[in-house]
Amino acid sequence: MYRGQSGQWSWLLHRITGLAILLFLLVHIVDITLLGFGPTIYNDAIAIFSTGIIRLVSTALIAALLYHSFNGIRIILIDFWPSGYKYQQQMFYIVLAASIIGFIPMAFYILAPIFGVCPAGACNTPAM
Amino acid sequence: MATVTAAPRGATQTGSDLRTVQVRIKRFQPDTNDQPYWQEFTVQVEGKDRLLDALNKIKWQQDGTLTFRRSCAHGVCGSDAMRVNGRNRLACKLLMQDLGARITVEPMLGFPIIRDLVVDMDPFFAKYEKVKPYLINDEPAPHTERLQSPEQRARFDETTKCILCGACTGSCPSVWANSEWVGPASIVNAHRFIFDSRDRGAADRLNILSDRTGVWRCRTIFNCSEACPRGIHVTEAIEEVKRAIMYGSEE
Amino acid sequence: MNYHKFDVVIVGAGGAGLMSAMQLAHNSSIAVISKLYPTRSHTGAAQGGVAAALGNQEEDHWKWHMFDTVKGGDYLTDQDAAEVLAREAIDAVYDLEHWGLPFNRTPDGKIDQRRFGGHTRNFGEGPVRRSCYAADRTGHMILQTMYQQSVKNQVNFFNEYMMLDVLFNDGQACGVVAMNLRDTSIHVFHAKAIVFATGGYGRAWRITSNALACTGDGMAVAYRRGIPLEDMEMYQFHPTGLYKVGILLSEAARGEGAYLLNSEGERFCIRYAPTMQELAPRDMVSRFIYQEVAEGRGIDGKDYVYLSVAHLGKERIDEKLPDITDFARTYLGVEPYYEPVPIQPTAHYAMGGIPTDIEGRVVVDEQNTVMPGFYAAGEVACVSVHGANRLGTNSLVDLIVFGRRAGKHIASKWLPEADYAPLPNDPDGRAREQVESLLGRTRGEGQDAIRKELRDMMMDKVGVIRSEQSLTEARAKLVELRERYDGVRLMDTSHTFNTELMEVIELGNLLDCAEATIAGALARRESRGGHYRNDYEARDDVNFLRHTLAYHTDQVGEPELRYKPVVITEFQPKERKY
Amino acid sequence: MTTNIAERQAQRPVPSAANVTSYGTTRRPGPGSSGWETFSWYFFRVSGVGLVFLALIHVFIMHVSTDVSQTVYDFVAARYANPFWRVYDLLLLTLALFHGLNGVRIVCDDYIRSRGWRLTVQSVLFFIAITFWLMGMLTVITFHKNENLAQTVGALLHTFIR
Ligand SMILES: Cc1cc2nc3c(=O)[nH]c(=O)nc-3n(C[C@H](O)[C@H](O)[C@H](O)COP(=O)(O)OP(=O)(O)OC[C@H]3O[C@@H](n4cnc5c(N)ncnc54)[C@H](O)[C@@H]3O)c2cc1C
Ligand code: HEM
Ligand code: SF4
Ligand code: F3S
Ligand code: FES
Predict the structure, then answer these.
(1) Cα separation of A30 and A34, whole Å?
(2) Tens digit of pLDDT for each residue in B3-42?
């Protein structure tokens, strides 16, 4: 194992989150295709997304997406802003902070329905 | 005039302060064992000894089969890059007092291992040669020097410091994954010429570096910059080359 | 047997070897053999600069440079060689610039030059800016530039091949034998011309600025084959090496105004050299330090003194001496802003070596008889351009001027008329026998004690100050060490990258170089330049204005000594005062 | 070889600021080759910037401002009544898919050493890209409330053949 600095971990995380989001996207394309098969099929299928477990998976997706987007901006800044490289470490910490700050309320909105709280108005959580 | 009264800190420390350290070394002895294994040595050193001194001590007094490269012993020749406590370092630039009582020493990643800490540098130099690391200028030279302003000279000063030790290339996860990639050291040396006002080969080098095995494989991981014993901002150099490819003209 | 055939084989890939290669790469088949990857060569450690009378900053003339070289060498310098050095330095430096060497620049874009010890205007009137430099890493830049050009010219490198033997037949050089470190295989290189550029042997001393690879291999191999070694007693100690480690702190520090202080906080140089003070030549300052230590004014009663830069102020230190202060921080943990740096004289440079003429051809006797096809350049050679003491920045000039000359001579004069001499019978016999006998020797004494005792002995008895007694003791010790060496054992019998084998062979080479050094020093009953005898403190031009030639004999410690005259053209010997 | 310093100094260009620039700024590389790898690298950045908005807003709408359990058929149908959202989703789909699969291509390039395997994997990726893109596109473009995909495609084909 190489004891790399933050850049190594930020890259690894970026790669893993990118692949994870893609995997989700592929699944998502399949499920929206079900739209074409009419409301019953679609609604039955999409109900899975409201289950507790899949809600947890979705929060993970949100975390991944937040991190990946913010870190993507960091990478773009390193690439195009000539002094970007100097602040890469600070930017990494900002990325982490921003991801967490963005993540907490979003996670609350998604997970609360499991406990019967509906911050977004209507909600329900079918059992698996 | 400065007069010296009390003995300075440095001088007292140059006295003997023997300490015992454990050095864990990843051995590979292809003649007798086709698997790498760990071996631990206990050695007495002074705080001001270099890790290289400790390795020599082990080699000369305990186990003559311990194999590593070295020459200058003060960080200018680039022979003894190795992984120390998980990071690429020159063994001759580390003092024992900064390393703790248990030290792990391994060969660099990303290079074929020949024996113990000695890795095969031939592919590394082959990749270095790929970027045309020499001045290209077919215009007839003047009778004296080609002129260059101090500012133009300063433009590429940093990357002239490279001693081709390979510490950066061996620290880069992109290199570990893809051995065809030219790696940071080659780009540093391409940078040294791309930004030299006397050189005329930049377009050629940028072309080479924009293909599959070129600069785009760098994922800005920054291990290279941290590893460079010459303090070169390797990633910055790589980013400058990327921008030169994107924008063409640098000035 | 692995057999290779090239027009020219160059041994050593430092500045001298690569400069020769550059002259030959386009017009002949060449091979460069080096026991290190070329960029690891010790040339890369040189800091200060390379002298050439370009006159970019102020008026300068090659003749002044020639004079300084002769005077600096305490008149043991061959003046025909000094003239070549000073004249051709100019072209050689421009060559390097055209090949891309990133020299520092003046505001109008020319190569920048700075002052250095012993380089003067108008035959000694005052300091002159003659040293062309690339920050504090001129040697590094020379080595890199030469290697880059070698890549461009597709030079054949045999990296990590250690040369073990040189072959002569029909009165000419015909090849070298080398061992591939990767697999310990023995290779014979058949050639019309051989160039030795293997560098110095500073590792014979305990405290040295030299790399671990500087073990005098070329000198020892030639010596054992009957080639004499010239002026080996002339060895330079640089006054300011880091205490214990020997890492060099460049002369630039004193050039900027650093002081040397003894245990009483006194600037002792003033006592010895009232006018030049700390800036007296290297051999002299080293002796001042030695004297202070001998008289009990070393710091803490030990064998070192202080170099102090603190009074120069932070800005000046950061601007002019960053490298030096960094070494002090890294290796001694001393902060030079506030603290003085412990230093002691460090074994630095061999003025002597394999005798050559000004074309780089190796000569084998007092009449300068040439050994056809055999060339040497760089620190391994003795042209003799440095005489008894080398000036700072003159070594890099030596490499590029005489490396270039050797190459050019081979290309234009030797190759057109030469042919391959046949290889002798069993060409690799001697080398194979050396390697096999060592690999077979698994019982006996290890190399460590022998090396350590050799280095201590050289430091204490063949160091800055020598005497009949110390040298006689040294010779006796050498005989003992040689005997023990003949029974040395190896722990490592592997055929893959056997560095213990390499080190033991190197140790043998150091012993041979030490032998010639001690014998020459013992016989030279005078003090001149780097060679200082406290029993013969004066220079003796009547008896010793001549070069020593040491020939190997079967009697350990007793080489045959012969002498050859010094070439004097323009500058008659005078007392050397600064 | 000239070693006469006076002669050499006479031959030297007169040092002046003008001289320096004449040696210095004569050339610069033209825009680097616009190779495929360069394009791919660019595409990551450009699509990345787009995706920051597209993906985050999408996620916000689908998971935060409305709970997932409410994003049923009718919800989608209501959204798609406005062509803006169709265009929005088309963009999101296209950029994310190609951005992501380009990423997988890079990752495979890193870890797959053999040329043959790499080609195979890349072909598979290409196939996945096209299939999924068509699947997504078709759905987003052709979606009509209460009409199923088969019918729509049939109708489309019908008009076409006519
Ligand atoms: C710290 C330091 C600073 C210096 N600063 C200056 C300065 O500022 N200015 C100046 O003019 N001089 C300076 N010098 C002196 C100068 O650097 C050296 O004298 C010079 O570099 C020697 O060059 P070289 O080409 O002869 O040998 P090296 O550069 O030592 O090269 C020797 C080559 O021979 C090869 N070799 C050796 N043995 C074998 C073998 N058995 N088989 C195969 N290959 C072999 C090695 O691999 C290497 O490639 C300095 C020296 C030191 C130590
Ligand atoms: C939301 C905004 C996004 C931004 C700003 C962004 C940015 C980036 C950038 C700049 C890279 C290149 C990394 C590099 O060159 O080192 C990248 C790689 C990648 N992205 Fe994104 N991306 C985003 C969304 C997505 C989405 C939605 C997916 C999945 C479909 C995704 C999957 C990937 C993958 C798989 C990689 C390759 C990772 C690698 O090479 O290590 N990204 N992203
Ligand atoms: S850039 Fe730094 S780490 Fe990389 S080879 Fe050069 S000196 Fe070594
Ligand atoms: S570690 Fe590697 S990925 Fe780039 S920034 Fe350095 S070369
Ligand atoms: S031995 Fe030369 S860099 Fe460490």
Answers:
(1) 7
(2) 343 344 444 444 567 899 999 999 999 999 999 999 999 9
Chain B residues whose beta carbon lies within 8 Å of the beta carbon of residue C446: 60-61, 64
Interface confidence, given as ipTM, is 0.92
Residue C297 placed within a domain: yes
Task: Please state the domain extents for chain B.
Answer: 18-119, 122-134+150-247
Do C15 and C62 fall into the same domain?
yes
Q: How much is the average pLDDT of C289-315?
A: 92
Percent of chain B exceeding pLDDT 70 equals 92
Question: What pLDDT, on a 0 to 100 scale, did the predictor assign at position A127?
Answer: 65
pLDDT, tens only, C503-542: 999 999 999 999 999 999 999 999 999 999 999 999 999 9
- Residues 6 or more apart whose CB falls under 8 angstroms from that of B26 comprise B36, B37, B38, B104, B105, B106, B107, B116, B117
Q: What is the number of domains present in chain A?
A: 1
Q: What is the CATH number of the domain that holds A56?
A: 1.20.1300.10
Q: Which of C347, C380, C409 is the last residue of a domain?
A: C347
Nearest CA in chain C to D1: C91
Phi then psi dihedrals of residue C350, to 5 deg:
-90, 110
From chain A, the residues in CB contact with D96 under 8 A are 21-22, 25
Q: What is the pLDDT of residue C124?
A: 85
Question: Which amino acid, A27?
Answer: V
CA distances from C459 to C203, C471, C478 (A): 11, 11, 13
* Helical segments of C423-467, H only: 429-440, 447-461
Is the minimum CB–CB distance between D117 and chain B shorter than 8 Å? no
Is beta strand C361-363 parallel, antiparallel or unpaired with respect to C354-355?
unpaired
The C-alpha torsion from C576 through D3 and D9 to D10, rounded to 10°, is: 140
pLDDT of residue D149: 66
What pLDDT is recorded for position C560? Answer: 97
Instruction: Give the span between the Cα atoms of C183 and B118, in whole angstroms.
Output: 13
Per-residue confidence band for D151, with pLDDT thresholds at 50, 70 and 90: low
Measure the CA–CA gap between C68 and C392, rounded to whole angstroms: 11
Q: What percent of chain C has pLDDT over 70?
A: 100
DSSP string over C252-268: HHHHTT-EEE-TTS--T
**Pocket of ligand 4 from Cβ distances under 6 Å:** B 171-172, 174, 184, 218-224, 234-235, 238
Taking phi over 0 as left and psi of -120 to 50 as alpha, with beta for the rest, C345 belongs to beta
**Tens digits of residue pLDDT in D63-88:** 888 888 888 888 989 999 999 999 99
CB atoms closer than 10 angstroms to residue D132 = 19
As its CATH architecture, domain B122-134+150-247 has Orthogonal Bundle (1.10)
pTM of the model: 0.93
Rounded distance between C-alpha atoms, residue A120 and residue C477, angstroms: 93
Q: Are C204 and C513 in contact (CB under 8 A)?
A: yes
Q: Is residue A121 in some structural domain?
A: no
Instruction: Determine the structural domain holding residue C438 and report its residue range.
Output: 429-537
Q: What is the CATH number of the domain that holds C568?
A: 3.50.50.60
Catalytic residues of C: 282
What three-state secondary structure class fits C197?
A: coil
User: What's the length of chain C?
Assistant: 578
Q: D90: pLDDT confidence band, cut at 50, 70 and 90?
A: very high
- Does B195 score more than 90 pLDDT? yes
Note which residues in 26-45 of chain A have CB less than 8 A from chain D.
26, 29-30, 32-33, 35-39, 42-43
The three-point CA angle C500-C505-C510 to 5° equals 120
In this prediction, residues D94-119 reach a mean pLDDT of: 92
The reply to whether ligand 1 has any atom less than 6 angstroms from the CB of C394 is: yes
Residue C578 lies in a domain: no
- Does domain B18-119 sit in CATH 1.10.3430.10? no
Residue with CA nearest ligand 2 atom 15 = B219
Q: Residue C343: which H helix or E strand, with range?
A: strand C341-350
